[in-house]
Amino acid sequence: MNHIVCLAYVPDTETKIKIGADGKSIDESDVKWIVSPYDEYALEEAIKTKETKGGTVTVVTFGPAKADVGLRECLARGANEAVRIAADGLAQVDSLGVAKLLAAAIKPMPFDVLWLGNKGVGTDAQTLVPMLAEFLDLPHVNLVTKLEWKDGAVTCWREIEGAKEVVETPLPALIAAQKGLNEPRYASLKGIMAAKKKTIAVKTPADLGVDVAAVSGDKAAVRWTKLELPPARQAVKLIPADDPAKAAEELLRLLRDEAKVL
Amino acid sequence: MAFGGVDFLGIDDMLSPDELAVRELVRDFVESDILPIIEECAWEGRFPRELVPRMAALNLFGATISEYGLPGLGNVAYGLIMQELERGDSGIRSFASVQSALVMYPIYSYGSKAQKDRWIPALGKGEAIGCFGLTEPDFGSNPGGMRTAARKDGDSWVLNGSKAWITNGSIADVAVVWAKVGGPDGKVRGFLVEKGTSGFTTSEHRMKMSLRASVTSQLAFQDCRVGADALLPGVEGLKGPLSCLNQARYGIAWGGIGSAMATYTAALDYARSRKQFGDRPIASHQMVQEKLAFMISEITKGQLLALRLGRMKDAGTLKPEHVSLGKRNNVWVARECARLAREILGANGIAGEYPVFRHLANIESVFTYEGTHDIHTLVLGQAVTGIPSYNPPAP
């Protein structure tokens, strides 16, 4: 069974985000980049399945040259090949554009399972999974926490509101991982040394026949116009509780007049 | 907030992508597997043995060896492993140093094929633990005076003597033991003594105030009989153990920087958030800034030194006196940083909620083990004057 895993290279979830000078992008200067955690679940499942059933794992990302570090980390964990669609120098591409680029890169590649995380933790748009499945004309199962392989099909347990849904899909299919699917492994030093010898195939949007101008910048369907940080938390106001009746009165007053929640 | 490293001078630009990847891997491991448990381990005086298989899965043991399925890393990557482990804890770094540099290295370099086949894979996978017996109760800086003796008796060797301050001693499956053959003026030879061999016993050093998350033991040999195949065939004389120590000390030059990074980062974070005299952080105080400036200066110089040693080691131009320079300087840096960090933290500097006092106590051991600070001073003195002060020529 052959696997393709799409991954996003995103700011570490512990990054303190700063807004860039243009007011609509993030300041990337002190950002540590990581493979998106949900994509790590997808990669781990693909590698585990490869280890028991044979086949290969190819990782694909759309990103600038620094994303090669993330791809190498995936190779070090056990992926066989890596493809990067070069985003260097491009204006912002929205999820629809990313889906088109990934679909164009994946179409000529043979695979049984296409894996993604259910979301990236970068922009958290959560739209890529169904869009990519549509472009590739694949069935997709999202938010998967458990799998059972059958001949030419797979049974998936997926999380829905307050319950688990069990569905079966024929292969090839797109499966999107949810937290809880597995515990991603560390790479090993041996893996890092082996990954060092591999080449990452870099493709430009033009190589893939995608007119990137039509899906990026002003032409993107979703454009970022402004970024704002959440308002800073205000200092805690302590109400003296010497006289409980007075304290309750003061609390009510504050909730009504200052917080305006009553 | 995850540890983002200390790199004032952009030294990362001098590291290769795979060296950076190795460092990130070990850094993540330290962050998620060591730091959450290490204060408790040190408090309880417990070596977290559960980490051994995890470290082995990452290939942290024997990482510079390229045979036996081991990764064959360069020396800078190896140094970065030691740096990151010691940012966690000097005791954990000591475990890895001993396993790799003092046990796997001599077996790999001086062992017979049978010895290598038996031990290198097991030690690399963490299925076996090793220790290194050179120091004796009465012989530390002067190992050549050792009393442990090995006598040939028919087809076997008989060992008598004792070793002290042996990291991993009582948990080791195999001890690399150095003993004199042929009387007090005889040659030093290495022997592999397995746990459970009759006449070989161990006991732990109790009440240690430092390296509490690591096992330190005495080894005793009383008519301990081992086969002829226990002898390490490839080396004789003190250069055997000293070559191993040279490997380990090289790693400690990096480890010291890891410890210093830990205490510096703790002090910087604390100074930024601790407020005194109005609503100003103590980081705004000149005397606090002076301490932080000293720390970052010394750490940065130590990083450059360690990196240079690593590049020289890869190029084959590294001499023992260079390693002495690195071990002596960088452990001193760690010791000074720990002390200054403890001052910046005030009362919190002695509290177990911060890593500072643990590092402060640990580095006291590192300061005098693997060649004391003073002995490395004399190695440097000899290197520049040509005169060995511990054995000066007659006037």
Describe the structure concisely:
The complex is a heterodimer of chains A (262) and B (395). Chain A is α/β, with parallel strands linked by helices and 262 residues long.
Q: What distinguishing features does this structure have?
A:
heterodimer; A: 262 residues; alpha/beta; 9-stranded mixed sheet; two-stranded antiparallel ribbon; 6 helices; 11 strands; B: 395 residues; alpha+beta; Butyryl-Coa Dehydrogenase, subunit A, domain 1; Butyryl-CoA Dehydrogenase, subunit A, domain 2; Butyryl-CoA Dehydrogenase, subunit A, domain 3; 3 domains; 7-stranded mixed sheet; two-stranded antiparallel sheet; 9 strands; 50% helix; globular
Can you give a write-up of this model?
The complex is a heterodimer of chains A (262) and B (395). With 262 residues, chain A is α/β, with parallel strands linked by helices. In chain A, strand 7 and strand 8 (153-160) form a beta hairpin. Chain A contains six helices and eleven strands. Chain A starts with a strand and ends with a helix. In chain A, helix 2 crosses helix 5 and helix 3 (95-106) packs across helix 4 (128-135). With 395 residues, chain B is of the alpha+beta class. Chain B has three domains: 11-124, Acyl-CoA dehydrogenase/oxidase, N-terminal domain (Butyryl-Coa Dehydrogenase, subunit A, domain 1), CATH 1.10.540.10; 130-230, Beta Barrel (Butyryl-CoA Dehydrogenase, subunit A, domain 2); 239-385, Butyryl-CoA Dehydrogenase, subunit A, domain 3 (Up-down Bundle). Helix content of chain B is 50%, strand content 15%. Chain B has ten helices and nine strands. In chain B, the strands form two sheets. In chain B, strands 1, 2, 3, 4, 5, 6 and 7 form a seven-stranded mixed β-sheet that branches. A two-stranded antiparallel ribbon of chain B has the order 8-9. In chain B, helix 4 runs antiparallel to helix 5. The radius of gyration of chain B is 21 Å and the shape is globular. At the A-B interface, helix 2 and helix 5 of A face helix 1 of B.
